Amino acid sequence: MGCYDCCMRCLGGVPYCSLVATLLCFSGIALFCGCGHQALTETERLIETYFARNLQDYITLAYIIQYFQYVIYGLASFFFLYCIVLLAEGFYTTSVAKQTFGEFRSTMCGRCLSSSFIVLTYVLAVLWLLVFAFSALPVYFFYNMDATCHTIDVLTETPASINQLCVDARQYGLLPWNAVPGKACGMTLSTVCKTREYQMTYDLYIAAFAGAGITLLALLTYTVSTTYNFAVLRYLGRKGIGARC
Protein backbone atom coordinates (compact mmCIF):
# COMPACT_ATOMS: atom_id res chain seq x y z
CA MET A 1 0.00 0.00 0.00
CA GLY A 2 1.39 3.38 -1.02
CA CYS A 3 1.72 6.42 1.24
CA TYR A 4 -1.19 8.18 -0.49
CA ASP A 5 -3.50 5.19 -0.10
CA CYS A 6 -2.49 4.82 3.53
CA CYS A 7 -3.24 8.49 4.23
CA MET A 8 -6.60 8.29 2.47
CA ARG A 9 -7.49 5.19 4.46
CA CYS A 10 -6.58 6.93 7.72
CA LEU A 11 -8.57 10.05 6.80
CA GLY A 12 -11.49 7.83 5.84
CA GLY A 13 -11.57 6.49 9.39
CA VAL A 14 -11.96 9.94 10.97
CA PRO A 15 -15.47 10.52 12.43
CA TYR A 16 -15.85 14.06 11.18
CA CYS A 17 -19.32 14.53 12.66
CA SER A 18 -18.12 13.50 16.12
CA LEU A 19 -14.97 15.61 15.69
CA VAL A 20 -16.99 18.73 14.87
CA ALA A 21 -19.32 18.03 17.78
CA THR A 22 -16.34 17.66 20.12
CA LEU A 23 -14.86 20.99 19.03
CA LEU A 24 -18.26 22.65 19.46
CA CYS A 25 -18.70 21.08 22.88
CA PHE A 26 -15.25 22.15 24.08
CA SER A 27 -15.70 25.73 22.89
CA GLY A 28 -19.28 25.96 24.20
CA ILE A 29 -18.44 24.57 27.64
CA ALA A 30 -15.37 26.82 27.87
CA LEU A 31 -17.52 29.87 27.12
CA PHE A 32 -20.35 28.85 29.41
CA CYS A 33 -18.23 27.82 32.38
CA GLY A 34 -15.54 30.48 32.14
CA CYS A 35 -17.79 33.44 31.42
CA GLY A 36 -20.57 32.16 33.68
CA HIS A 37 -18.22 31.78 36.64
CA GLN A 38 -16.82 35.30 36.28
CA ALA A 39 -20.27 36.78 35.61
CA LEU A 40 -21.58 35.33 38.87
CA THR A 41 -18.67 36.88 40.75
CA GLU A 42 -19.30 40.29 39.18
CA THR A 43 -23.03 40.01 39.87
CA GLU A 44 -22.38 39.51 43.57
CA ARG A 45 -20.14 42.59 43.52
CA LEU A 46 -22.81 44.71 41.81
CA ILE A 47 -25.50 43.61 44.25
CA GLU A 48 -23.25 44.28 47.21
CA THR A 49 -22.25 47.73 45.97
CA TYR A 50 -25.49 49.20 44.60
CA PHE A 51 -28.50 47.18 45.79
CA ALA A 52 -27.81 46.01 49.34
CA ARG A 53 -26.21 47.70 52.32
CA ASN A 54 -26.56 44.92 54.86
CA LEU A 55 -24.63 41.68 54.53
CA GLN A 56 -27.63 39.67 55.72
CA ASP A 57 -29.66 40.95 52.77
CA TYR A 58 -27.52 39.19 50.15
CA ILE A 59 -25.83 36.42 52.12
CA THR A 60 -28.27 33.85 50.68
CA LEU A 61 -27.51 35.06 47.16
CA ALA A 62 -23.79 34.78 47.89
CA TYR A 63 -24.22 31.15 48.96
CA ILE A 64 -26.26 30.37 45.85
CA ILE A 65 -23.62 31.96 43.62
CA GLN A 66 -20.90 29.94 45.32
CA TYR A 67 -22.94 26.76 44.86
CA PHE A 68 -23.42 27.44 41.14
CA GLN A 69 -19.71 28.08 40.74
CA TYR A 70 -18.97 24.64 42.19
CA VAL A 71 -21.53 23.17 39.79
CA ILE A 72 -19.70 24.89 36.93
CA TYR A 73 -16.46 23.17 37.94
CA GLY A 74 -18.22 19.81 37.84
CA LEU A 75 -19.85 20.51 34.48
CA ALA A 76 -16.54 21.46 32.89
CA SER A 77 -14.87 18.25 34.08
CA PHE A 78 -17.79 16.00 33.14
CA PHE A 79 -18.28 17.35 29.62
CA PHE A 80 -14.54 17.26 28.91
CA LEU A 81 -14.40 13.55 29.73
CA TYR A 82 -17.74 12.72 28.08
CA CYS A 83 -16.77 14.42 24.83
CA ILE A 84 -13.51 12.48 24.74
CA VAL A 85 -15.41 9.21 25.26
CA LEU A 86 -17.91 10.03 22.50
CA LEU A 87 -15.10 10.95 20.13
CA ALA A 88 -13.36 7.64 20.87
CA GLU A 89 -16.63 5.79 20.25
CA GLY A 90 -16.96 7.62 16.94
CA PHE A 91 -13.44 6.56 15.90
CA TYR A 92 -14.21 2.96 16.82
CA THR A 93 -17.48 2.81 14.88
CA THR A 94 -16.03 4.54 11.83
CA SER A 95 -13.18 2.01 11.77
CA VAL A 96 -15.74 -0.80 11.87
CA ALA A 97 -17.64 0.70 8.95
CA LYS A 98 -14.58 1.44 6.84
CA GLN A 99 -12.92 -1.94 7.43
CA THR A 100 -15.91 -4.25 7.37
CA PHE A 101 -13.92 -7.32 6.41
CA GLY A 102 -10.78 -6.41 8.32
CA GLU A 103 -9.71 -7.20 11.85
CA PHE A 104 -12.26 -4.82 13.37
CA ARG A 105 -15.56 -6.49 14.11
CA SER A 106 -18.93 -5.34 15.36
CA THR A 107 -19.53 -6.92 18.78
CA MET A 108 -22.56 -7.17 20.99
CA CYS A 109 -20.76 -5.03 23.56
CA GLY A 110 -20.11 -2.39 20.91
CA ARG A 111 -23.79 -2.23 19.99
CA CYS A 112 -24.81 -2.05 23.66
CA LEU A 113 -22.37 0.80 24.29
CA SER A 114 -23.63 2.70 21.25
CA SER A 115 -27.25 2.36 22.36
CA SER A 116 -26.26 3.53 25.86
CA PHE A 117 -24.54 6.59 24.41
CA ILE A 118 -27.66 7.40 22.39
CA VAL A 119 -29.89 7.37 25.49
CA LEU A 120 -27.41 9.25 27.67
CA THR A 121 -26.69 11.91 25.05
CA TYR A 122 -30.40 12.42 24.42
CA VAL A 123 -31.06 12.86 28.15
CA LEU A 124 -28.15 15.30 28.42
CA ALA A 125 -29.50 17.29 25.46
CA VAL A 126 -32.92 17.60 27.12
CA LEU A 127 -31.38 18.62 30.45
CA TRP A 128 -29.05 21.09 28.75
CA LEU A 129 -32.03 22.64 27.00
CA LEU A 130 -33.23 23.63 30.48
CA VAL A 131 -29.79 25.04 31.27
CA PHE A 132 -29.89 27.01 28.02
CA ALA A 133 -33.26 28.49 28.98
CA PHE A 134 -32.08 29.24 32.51
CA SER A 135 -28.97 31.03 31.20
CA ALA A 136 -31.26 33.44 29.34
CA LEU A 137 -32.69 34.81 32.61
CA PRO A 138 -29.70 36.97 33.62
CA VAL A 139 -29.43 38.22 30.04
CA TYR A 140 -33.10 39.25 30.23
CA PHE A 141 -32.50 41.02 33.56
CA PHE A 142 -29.53 42.99 32.24
CA TYR A 143 -31.36 43.75 29.00
CA ASN A 144 -34.22 45.33 30.94
CA MET A 145 -31.72 47.22 33.06
CA ASP A 146 -29.91 48.50 29.99
CA ALA A 147 -33.19 49.55 28.35
CA THR A 148 -34.17 51.48 31.49
CA CYS A 149 -30.80 53.23 31.55
CA HIS A 150 -31.22 54.16 27.90
CA THR A 151 -34.61 55.69 28.72
CA ILE A 152 -33.03 57.68 31.55
CA ASP A 153 -30.39 59.05 29.20
CA VAL A 154 -33.12 60.18 26.81
CA LEU A 155 -35.13 61.89 29.59
CA THR A 156 -32.26 63.72 31.27
CA GLU A 157 -34.06 67.05 30.89
CA THR A 158 -36.97 65.97 33.09
CA PRO A 159 -35.55 64.88 36.48
CA ALA A 160 -38.99 64.19 37.97
CA SER A 161 -39.66 61.50 35.38
CA ILE A 162 -36.17 60.05 35.71
CA ASN A 163 -36.54 59.34 39.42
CA GLN A 164 -39.55 57.15 38.72
CA LEU A 165 -37.51 54.80 36.52
CA CYS A 166 -36.04 52.04 38.67
CA VAL A 167 -34.66 48.53 38.55
CA ASP A 168 -35.69 46.54 41.61
CA ALA A 169 -33.52 43.49 42.27
CA ARG A 170 -36.13 42.23 44.73
CA GLN A 171 -38.66 41.72 41.95
CA TYR A 172 -36.32 39.21 40.31
CA GLY A 173 -35.82 37.25 43.51
CA LEU A 174 -32.19 38.32 43.90
CA LEU A 175 -32.83 39.96 47.27
CA PRO A 176 -35.47 39.59 50.00
CA TRP A 177 -38.27 42.16 50.08
CA ASN A 178 -36.94 43.79 53.24
CA ALA A 179 -33.55 44.53 51.63
CA VAL A 180 -32.49 48.19 51.65
CA PRO A 181 -32.38 49.87 49.20
CA GLY A 182 -33.04 46.85 47.00
CA LYS A 183 -33.38 49.02 43.90
CA ALA A 184 -31.59 51.73 41.92
CA CYS A 185 -33.43 54.67 40.40
CA GLY A 186 -32.81 57.71 38.24
CA MET A 187 -29.28 58.98 37.87
CA THR A 188 -28.01 56.38 40.34
CA LEU A 189 -29.16 53.66 37.97
CA SER A 190 -27.65 55.51 35.03
CA THR A 191 -24.33 55.67 36.88
CA VAL A 192 -24.46 51.93 37.53
CA CYS A 193 -25.02 51.21 33.83
CA LYS A 194 -21.96 53.26 32.89
CA THR A 195 -19.59 51.39 35.19
CA ARG A 196 -17.06 48.94 33.80
CA GLU A 197 -18.33 46.21 36.13
CA TYR A 198 -21.85 46.43 34.71
CA GLN A 199 -20.76 46.39 31.08
CA MET A 200 -18.39 43.48 31.65
CA THR A 201 -21.02 41.46 33.56
CA TYR A 202 -23.58 42.01 30.80
CA ASP A 203 -21.10 40.88 28.14
CA LEU A 204 -20.10 37.84 30.21
CA TYR A 205 -23.70 36.69 30.56
CA ILE A 206 -24.24 37.07 26.82
CA ALA A 207 -21.11 35.01 26.16
CA ALA A 208 -22.25 32.36 28.67
CA PHE A 209 -25.65 32.23 26.96
CA ALA A 210 -23.96 31.79 23.59
CA GLY A 211 -21.76 29.06 25.07
CA ALA A 212 -24.83 27.22 26.34
CA GLY A 213 -26.33 27.40 22.84
CA ILE A 214 -23.15 26.06 21.24
CA THR A 215 -23.06 23.20 23.75
CA LEU A 216 -26.69 22.36 22.98
CA LEU A 217 -25.85 22.27 19.28
CA ALA A 218 -22.92 19.96 20.04
CA LEU A 219 -25.14 17.58 22.02
CA LEU A 220 -27.69 17.46 19.20
CA THR A 221 -24.87 16.71 16.76
CA TYR A 222 -23.65 13.96 19.07
CA THR A 223 -27.17 12.53 19.19
CA VAL A 224 -27.27 12.31 15.40
CA SER A 225 -23.77 10.81 15.15
CA THR A 226 -24.30 8.21 17.90
CA THR A 227 -27.62 7.17 16.34
CA TYR A 228 -25.89 6.73 13.00
CA ASN A 229 -23.06 4.78 14.65
CA PHE A 230 -25.57 2.46 16.30
CA ALA A 231 -27.32 1.90 12.97
CA VAL A 232 -23.97 1.01 11.38
CA LEU A 233 -23.16 -1.51 14.11
CA ARG A 234 -26.58 -3.16 13.82
CA TYR A 235 -26.18 -3.39 10.05
CA LEU A 236 -22.78 -5.02 10.42
CA GLY A 237 -24.22 -7.42 12.98
CA ARG A 238 -26.98 -8.47 10.59
CA LYS A 239 -24.43 -9.04 7.84
CA GLY A 240 -22.95 -11.79 10.01
CA ILE A 241 -19.56 -10.22 10.72
CA GLY A 242 -20.31 -9.43 14.33
CA ALA A 243 -18.66 -11.29 17.15
CA ARG A 244 -20.14 -11.70 20.60
CA CYS A 245 -17.98 -10.73 23.58
From TrEMBL:
Which GO CC annotations does the UniProt entry carry? myelin sheath; plasma membrane
Q: Name the principal localization, coarsely classed.
A: membrane
Protein localization: Membrane
- One of its Pfam families is Myelin_PLP
Q: Which UniProt keywords apply?
A: Membrane, Transmembrane, Transmembrane helix
In the UniProt record, does the keyword Membrane occur? yes
Q: What is this protein called?
A: Proteolipid protein 1a
Species for this entry: Seriola lalandi dorsalis
